[in-house]
Write a structure and sequence with these properties.
The protein is about 25% helix and about 20% strand. α1 (about 110-120) crosses α2 (about 125-130), α1 packs across α8 and α14 (about 535-545) packs parallel to α15. By secondary structure, it is an alpha/beta fold. A hairpin with a 7-residue loop joins β16 (about 430) and β17 (about 435-440). Among the domains are: about 10-105, 3-Layer(aba) Sandwich (GIY-YIG endonuclease); about 145-355, P-loop containing nucleotide triphosphate hydrolases (Rossmann fold, 3-Layer(aba) Sandwich), CATH 3.40.50.300; about 600-680, 2-Layer Sandwich (Alpha-Beta Plaits). The longest helix is centred in the middle third of the chain and has 15 residues, at about 230-245. A seven-stranded parallel beta sheet has the order 8-9-7-10-11-6-12, with helices on both faces. The chain has a six-stranded parallel beta sheet with strand order 13-25-24-14-22-20, with helices on both faces. The chain has a five-stranded antiparallel beta sheet with strand order 2-1-4-3-5, with no helix packed on it.
């Protein structure tokens, strides 16, 4: 497992960037008067360094990795010095550097990683560097520079004992690891500094934060731990701050600009050796990187929404390959991408034994409910009501629903066709009891509904939201407090151990003190039926993330699932076997040639622009083209969508063709621009 398969991460060969904090005296301007600068201009055909003259006053400060300001195309823009060199092919026609902005912030290793990420996703280096390096804050930079005299000496590769914390060199982890086969070897290899890459599936009854902190302690070098969002970050920070103290740096967009930049400077100067953060922290410029950890890699929050749309898991894979750092991709469930890396022997799978996995809450379905239940096919069958009633005797109960709102979707009572807005074709629904019909997209009210198919005027509920569910539960349990948690009403972070019912949309479940005594997972069939490639994968991940919130079976914890009991996703939950589900889903993707067993490119834009794009991209015979198809038939701006699927071994050619096509395809207008994403989260559906 010493080499990453071509289709996993796909880092490009090193591009010769020599961006590093100079450990030797920087040559004077007379010796290396030219600076190769990458400018902050996101134009595909300008994705290359440009040469600038270094004036004598910047001879010692414009070192590689420094942020500078230069004149480009008639305006001042920021950029980074990639290298200093003695001459240029454009000698005599060069502009000079206008300003040097602080000290070095871009390391050689991060620059190479950013270049590889840009090439993999058909983006530009400046786009990736915007994510890798936080915005400069001059006041924080000055304050930091004033404190540098009191800072610790930066640890060097020859002095591993100065890393700032005491690693576990005996190769032993905490007792909770005893049920994880291969954990001892993992610890020993980390302590020895040997590269090891692991797909770690943590049992619901174990504490993942303490376990991952154990791995960080075992590694004698620096470590980077990436989590999906601020909620996870807060939970991890509590434990990591206790265990690693001043060696810990927090990198998150939730912090103020000054705080984030100050923490970044602490890392880039070597004063902090352990980084915990959200998505962009995967680029943290730590010295002597030895371990990277990605928690819950199936979470969409780990995908950068801006171009080029990189995934933190893939960036970590690229850094692991380029630096030899160990990599741990951990979670309660296993993503299909991780399952594929395991199947290719690039990741070693480690999970708890069956007894440990099945010690979590008991899973109850319609198939194993006691007695005949005539309401088994309803949204809230009898065994689910009993689960709520019994759970309230010992503590709080969680009810997980698929949608927020009151009645988000209605259909014609007569022909059962989904009722849609006559203006934008969005689904009609009701926002509260007694309210009229309104579009869920444009909020336009519809006073007199008439079905365009059968001319019916009456509607029926198709989907019930969290508020309607809470209303039903409040009627059934009048003396119990019922709370709603979701994006429409606000996410509740935590609740007390008092008996109460929490109705939460998927992903907005609050943590209960002492855990929930029971949970009911609703709307599983509806979510499994969504016409999206990753619908089942996301639901399985969220179900397994819910299990740790409930008391274990030994304490009476029960989880009722109302979905089809024989569905493989439900059976994976019953058997506590997320890895088995992931391998079966991977086999289905391989049989149908769908991602991640193929590389995907999704392009949207005007039909004429798509034609030019595909002609320039020059798809090979082995590539599959799906489309073009309209993005939104009702939209005033005509846009189409095409999906290109290529063999994984040709991923580099796919990205290169996309980059070439982006350069050759001009935008039709400011409103309709071409958009290209390589391996996006949403490919089909």
């Amino acid at each position: 497992m010493d080499q990453l398969p071509l289709d996993v991460g796909e880092p490009t060969p090193k591009s010769g960037l020599r961006t590093s904090r100079a450990k030797k005296p920087v040559p004077l301007a007379e010796l290396n008067p030219i600076a190769a600068v990458v400018v902050d201009v996101n134009v595909p055909d300008l994705d290359r360094p440009f040469d600038y003259l270094v004036p004598a006053k910047f001879a010692d400060s414009a070192v590689p990795g420094t942020r500078v300001r230069v004149r480009f195309a008639g305006r001042l823009v920021d950029g980074y010095v990639l290298a200093r060199q003695p001459e240029s092919d454009h000698q005599g026609r060069l502009s000079t550097l206008s300003k040097v902005l602080g000290g070095p912030v871009l390391t050689d290793e991060v620059a190479r990683t950013a270049r590889a990420v840009a090439d993999r996703y058909a983006g530009t280096l400046s786009e990736v560097l915007r994510d890798a390096i936080p915005p400069r804050h001059a006041t924080a930079e000055k304050a930091f520079a004033a404190q540098e005299g009191d800072s610790k000496e930066r640890p060097t590769s020859e002095d591993p004992g100065d890393a700032g914390f005491a690693p576990s060199t005996d190769g032993h982890l905490s007792p909770v690891w005893a049920s994880y086969e291969g954990a001892d070897q993992l610890s020993l290899r980390l302590a020895e500094g040997t590269t090891v890459r692991v797909g770690l599936t943590i049992a619901a009854s174990d504490d993942p934060i303490e376990m991952l902190a154990d791995l960080v302690s075992a590694a004698p070098g620096s470590a980077v731990v990436v989590v999906p969002d601020a909620t996870d970050l807060s939970r991890f920070e509590t434990v990591f701050a206790r265990r690693f103290g001043d060696d810990l740096a927090i990198l998150s967009a939730a912090e103020s600009t000054a705080q984030r930049y100050e923490q970044f400077l602490e890392v880039v100067t070597g004063r902090r050796t352990i980084v915990l953060g959200t998505r962009s922290a995967v680029f943290a410029p730590v010295d002597r990187l030895q371990l990277m950890v990605i928690w819950d890699d199936g979470d969409d929050a780990l995908v950068e929404p801006r171009a080029p749309g990189w995934h933190a898991r893939e960036v970590a894979s690229i850094r692991s390959l380029g630096t030899g750092a160990s990599l741990v991709i951990a979670g309660y469930a296993q993503s299909v991408e991780t399952a594929r890396m395991v199947s290719r022997d690039w990741l070693v799978p480690i999970q708890a034994d069956r007894m440990r996995r099945q010690s979590a809450a008991r899973v109850l379905t319609a198939a194993n409910a006691v007695g005949d239940d005539p309401s088994a096919a309803s949204r809230l069958p009898q065994f689910a009501w009993q689960c709520v009633r019994r759970g309230l005797q010992d503590g709080p109960v969680l009810v997980q629903v698929g949608r927020g709102g009151y009645i988000p979707t209605v259909a014609c009572q007569q022909c059962r066709v989904i009722a849609r807005c006559p203006e934008c074709s969005g689904p009609l629904g009701r926002s509260a009891v007694g309210s009229g019909l309104a579009c869920q997209w444009c909020a336009r009210g519809v006073d007199n509904f008439e079905c365009p198919v059968c001319e019916g005027t009456q509607v029926r509920a198709v989907r019930l939201g969290s508020h309607r569910t809470a209303e039903e539960l409040q009627s059934a349990f009048p003396g119990v407090a019922v709370r709603v948690s979701g994006s429409d009403t606000g996410v509740i972070r935590s609740i007390s151990a008092e008996p109460q019912i929490v109705v939460a949309t998927v992903g907005a479940e609050p943590v209960a003190a002492g855990r929930y005594s029971a949970a009911v997972l609703l709307d599983g069939n509806a979510m499994l039926a969504r016409p999206e490639l990753r619908a089942e994968e996301q639901l399985v991940r969220r179900w397994f993330n819910t299990v740790p919130l409930v008391k274990p079976a030994s304490e009476g914890g029960v989880i009722a699932v109302t979905a089809e009991p024989h569905h493989r996703a439900v059976q994976a939950l019953v058997r506590a076997d997320p890895n088995g589900w992931a391998q079966r889903e991977l086999a289905d993707r391989e049989a149908t040639g769908l991602p991640p067993t193929t590389r995907a490119m999704v392009v949207t834009g005007a039909p004429e622009a798509l034609t030019t794009f595909l002609e320039t991209c020059q798809p090979r015979d082995s590539w599959r083209l799906l489309g073009p198809s309209p993005v939104d038939a009702e939209s005033s701006a005509s846009q189409s969508r095409v999906v290109v699927l290529a063999p994984t071994a040709q991923g580099a050619q796919l990205a290169a063709g996309a980059k070439r096509a982006l350069i050759a395809t001009p935008p039709v207008s400011d409103e309709v621009r071409l958009r290209c994403r390589i391996d996006p989260v949403r490919v089909l559906g």
